[in-house]
């Protein structure tokens, strides 16, 4: 099935494989009514360059028969994997947000170069310069990335291509679960992310809560349960939680089905947050030959549910 509104999608601006223009057109073709652009650690595009010149992205979406929500996915917490806060309805031209974008870029480029060096030292050669910064796209063309554009998923995809892991998801788990490989880049704290979103006039939503480990272990010996961690975020002003999400196509390690997680999240946090959202976390992975990739609208909410929270999204 496809949901009417997919509020968590990625483009080539971070680690997706559709351009923003392609994402909007593909979502419209798939019959969605609303699609969100929520790239990692970078503002969404406010305008698109088309054959007709520079066009406001919202106008372009309407011309294609679909609504677009603009967002920003903050990668949070240096010591906890997969804590992502989605910021919607923000002032994306805020100097404070631009400062965070630059800080995140610097932290990524340094950490990902180090990860490639560590993989190579452990018998899994990954050449940062000639395989990550310089790469071949799906059409066989040689492309170049700026170091600030590199995402960990680019490294995981290459690991799968080279046979170090069956899929990029397996590569992610391999790196995550190996203390020597799991290079910790300096990430914004989730509390600071929530504060920044609110300062920029936005709405803060916790993405894929069950990708956070059930028991969180900090280097200083502190332990927190996932539930305790989320309660802290709620107490700090978290507005919503992503409830409908395709965990079965991610690195989720638990036994629960996607539908069971959605029910649990809604039962546990009803009345504690203002609303629930949903999204596919679409990356257009089919372009990279990924078997059984996430598709647009695989996670999401109905148009009726969206209209009830429209004021928080637009």
Question: Can you tag this structure with a few keywords?
Answer:
Pol/His_phosphatase_N; two-stranded antiparallel sheet; 11 helices; 13 strands; Polymerase/histidinol phosphatase N-terminal domain-containing protein; 314 residues; 35% helix
Describe the structure.
This protein is α/β, with parallel strands linked by helices. It has one domain: Alpha-Beta Barrel (TIM Barrel), CATH 3.20.20.140. It has 11 helices and 13 strands. The chain has helices at residues 20-29, 57-63, 95-121, 128-133, 152-161, 168-176, 190-199, 226-235, 258-269, 303-308, 310-313, and strands at 5-6, 34-37, 47-50, 53-56, 67-76, 83-88, 134-136, 142-144, 203-206, 215-217, 223-225, 240-244, 275-278. The protein has a 7-stranded mixed beta sheet with strand order 1-2-5-6-9-12-13. The two termini are 25 Å apart. This is Polymerase/histidinol phosphatase N-terminal domain-containing protein. InterPro entries: PHP_dom, PHP_domain, Pol/His_phosphatase_N, Pol/histidinol_Pase-like. Residues 5-78 form the Polymerase/histidinol phosphatase N-terminal domain. One of its GO terms (molecular function) is 5'-3' DNA exonuclease activity.
Q: What is the β-strand count?
A: 13
Tertiary shape: globular
> SSE order, as H and E?
EHEEEHEEHHEEHHHEEEHEHEHH
* CATH C-level: Alpha Beta
Record the strand order, biggest sheet.
Answer: 1-2-5-6-9-12-13
- At the third CATH level, what is the topology name? TIM Barrel
Rounded radius of gyration (Å): 19 Å
What is the count of structural domains? 1
Q: Report the span from N to C terminus.
A: 25 Å
So, the CATH homologous superfamily?
Answer: Metal-dependent hydrolases
Secondary-structure arrangement, i.e. CATH architecture: Alpha-Beta Barrel
Q: Catalogue the unreliable spans.
A: none
């Amino acid at each position: 099935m496809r949901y009417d509104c997919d509020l968590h999608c990625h483009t080539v601006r971070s680690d997706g494989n559709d351009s923003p223009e392609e994402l909007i057109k593909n979502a419209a073709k798939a019959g969605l009514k609303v699609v969100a652009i929520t790239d990692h650690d970078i503002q969404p595009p406010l305008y698109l360059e088309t054959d007709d010149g520079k066009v406001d992205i919202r106008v372009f979406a309407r011309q294609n028969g679909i609504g677009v929500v603009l967002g920003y996915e903050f990668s949070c917490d240096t010591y906890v994997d997969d804590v992502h806060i989605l910021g919607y309805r923000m002032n994306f031209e805020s100097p404070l947000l631009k400062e965070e974008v630059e800080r995140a870029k610097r932290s990524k480029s340094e950490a990902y170069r180090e990860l490639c060096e560590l993989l190579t030292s452990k018998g899994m050669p990954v050449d940062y310069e000639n395989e990550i910064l310089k790469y071949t796209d799906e059409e066989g063309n040689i492309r170049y990335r700026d170091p600030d554009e590199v995402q960990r998923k680019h490294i995981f995809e290459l690991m799968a291509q080279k046979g170090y892991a069956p899929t990029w998801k397996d590569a992610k788990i391999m790196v995550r679960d190996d203390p020597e490989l799991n290079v910790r880049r300096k990430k914004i704290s989730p509390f600071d992310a929530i504060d920044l979103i609110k300062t920029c006039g936005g709405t803060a939503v916790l993405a894929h809560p069950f990708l956070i480990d059930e028991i969180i272990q900090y280097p200083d010996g502190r332990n927190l349960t996932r539930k305790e961690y989320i309660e802290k975020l709620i107490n700090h002003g978290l507005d919503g939680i992503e409830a409908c999400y395709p965990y079965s196509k991610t690195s989720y390690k638990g036994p629960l089905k996607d539908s069971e997680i959605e029910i649990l999240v809604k039962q546990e946090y009803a009345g504690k947050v203002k609303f629930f959202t949903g999204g596919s976390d679409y990356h257009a992975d089919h372009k990279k030959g990924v078997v059984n990739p996430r598709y647009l609208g695989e996670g999401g909410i109905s148009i009726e549910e969206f209209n009830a929270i429209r004021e928080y999204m637009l």
